[in-house]
Amino acid sequence: MGSPERAMLLALLSCQAAANVAANDATWHESSANDATWRESSATSVTNATLRYLSGGVVPILNGSTPGMVPKVGNNTLGVEDGTIVVVDGMLHMFPTEMHCGWTKTRVVHFTAPLDDNLTWTFRGGVTPYGHGVCDVDDHHAKLWSGSPQWEAPRPGEPEGRWYMSVVGYNEDCEDKAGGTDGRILMFRSATAGRGGIDGPYEELDDILKADGLVPMAGASVLRPYRSALPDDPPGRLWAFYGSGWDTGQCYSDTGVLGPWTRAPTGNPRPIGNWSDGGPENPLVFKSRSGVYLLIWAANLLQVEHGLAFAWSKDGVNWEDNTGGGIRTGKAGYMIPVSPPGHVAFRTPLALVEHEERDNFFTLFFTAFENDHANPAAPIGGYENAYASEVELVLTF
Ligand SMILES: *[C@@H]1O[C@H](CO)[C@@H](O)[C@H](O)[C@H]1NC(C)=O
Ligand SMILES: *[C@@H]1O[C@H](CO)[C@@H](O)[C@H](O)[C@H]1NC(C)=O
Ligand SMILES: *[C@@H]1O[C@H](CO)[C@@H](O)[C@H](O)[C@H]1NC(C)=O
Ligand SMILES: *[C@@H]1O[C@H](CO)[C@@H](O)[C@H](O)[C@H]1NC(C)=O
Ligand SMILES: *[C@@H]1O[C@H](CO)[C@@H](O)[C@H](O)[C@H]1NC(C)=O
Fold first, then answer.
1. Pocket lining: 65 vs ligand 1, CB cutoff 6 Å
2. Ligand 5 contact, 363 CB (< 6 A)
3. Among protein residues, the one whose CA lies closest to atom 11 of ligand 4
4. Which segment of the chain is annotated as a signal peptide (predicted)?
5. Ranked by mean pLDDT, which of 8-12, 15-19, 324-328 comes out on top?
6. Cα Rg for the chain, rounded, in angstroms?
7. Which of the ligands is closest to the CA of residue 3?
8. Cα of 75 to ligand 2 centre, how many Å?
């Protein structure tokens, strides 16, 4: 905490009570973990990787006119940010954070769209209750963020498999306008077994990822597990980014999504972004069918003007430094425009979903402040929409 630029940004963005920009979203492709569907990695000879904007990203896919979205009132910080998209049986399931009163009292909601009509979304309801928003109650349920569905494959005692949903719970510290340093991973479980259980309803289990297990990374902010390509990983090991207070690191579990999760012994915090950038937010990892791992996040203070922060990896654990000639976002990664000039403002990533019929082509889902995205000169803040762009993964060998 304490960067003057960030304090200014937060002051601009604050609706009321403690702002919380640290909450992360996550996106989940059904083949990302727990399914034995990985292709063998062909990534070892890649020397550079980038995402190239192709089309889209200007007209919102969710805005104040979409049934189920909160109504637009003045320039209050409302709408959606963070969240998760998972593909299940040809359907996209998005789990964004719904802001009906700025960054507090939030809940996780559910929208769906057919994969072949990914611009038309239907509201399916709340996944979690609303956060209570009460100051100084130490139960990590003042604001509920960043739903991330997690598929646990069939196993003894759970013959159909089951969906879990990690959610980040924060306290409301009304004195600390920056907030976002005390996230805990709360785990919800679908009451319905099998792949169709993605629709819920979801019931809360005990906290699984208390900050204590993972210090000194000050809390947790998202949990979106995937498998690495490290040859010496034990079978079934899951990796995930986590962190808050703008430091971001990696952890792993050898016992499924419920953990326990162990902080990676080396390399934390990961060198993505830094305090000058306002810190990294919402780091999401996607394994492309090429085998290359794609890391996208919001480089706070930069992304409101320049788009998406990006880095890549051959194994999902070691991230390539100095890959980009664009705007630097710290030691690794660079900024990718998400729309044509004049519309590149970006808030948080939602998903990179690779086209089923065409390798290396992705739909990028993201959120952005409507005012700022339409007019870069507009003050930062206001209603947050969701958008979709088409991008190509360009690999150099
Ligand atoms: C939502 O977006 C559509 C398409 O751009 C636009 O026609 C409509 O006016 C927008 N609604 C709001 C409330 O901004
Ligand atoms: C909202 O922001 C826009 C863009 O800066 C501005 O033109 C408009 O006057 C603001 N509306 C209100 C109600 O403050
Ligand atoms: C990798 O690709 C990016 C995007 O084209 C480019 O800006 C950068 O210079 C490349 N890096 C190297 C080391 O070639
Ligand atoms: C931190 O980010 C700033 C702004 O992008 C950049 O100028 C600086 O070199 C970065 N510092 C490190 C250590 O990466
Ligand atoms: C999203 O829809 C567009 C057409 O509107 C299509 O080209 C693209 O392949 C779709 N994305 C995915 C991931 O299927």
1. yes
2. yes
3. 330
4. 1-23
5. 324-328
6. 19
7. 4
8. 6
pLDDT range class, residue 65, cuts 50, 70, 90: very high
pLDDT in tens, 205-240: 865 554 444 433 444 466 889 999 999 999 999 999
Q: What backbone phi and psi angles, to 5 degrees, belong to 115? A: -60, -35
Tell me, in angstroms, the distance from the centre of ligand 3 to residue 321's CA: 11
pTM: 0.88
Residue 32 has pLDDT above 50, yes or no: no
HSE, CB side, 13 Å, CA atoms: give it for residue 317: 18
In 266-379, where does DSSP find H-type helix? 303-306, 370-374
Residue 239, both tokens: 């990796």
Q: Is 303 in the pocket of ligand 4 (CB under 6 A)?
A: no
State pLDDT tens for residues 306-322: 999 998 999 999 988 66
- Listed in sequence order, the residues at least 6 apart from 108 whose beta carbon sits closer than 8 Å to its beta carbon are 83, 95, 96, 97, 98, 126, 127, 128, 144, 145, 146, 147, 165, 167
Per the rule left: phi > 0, alpha: psi between -120 and 50, beta: everything else, 79 is left
Which ligand approaches the C-alpha of residue 275 most closely? 4
Nearest-atom number in ligand 2 for the CA of 75 is 1
Q: What are phi and psi of 287, to 5 degrees?
A: -95, 120
Sign of CA dihedral 206, 151, 109, 174: positive
Distance 277 CA to ligand 4 centre (A): 7
Q: Which residues, 6 or more positions from 312, have their beta carbon under 8 angstroms from its beta carbon?
A: 46, 49, 292, 293, 294, 295, 319, 320, 323
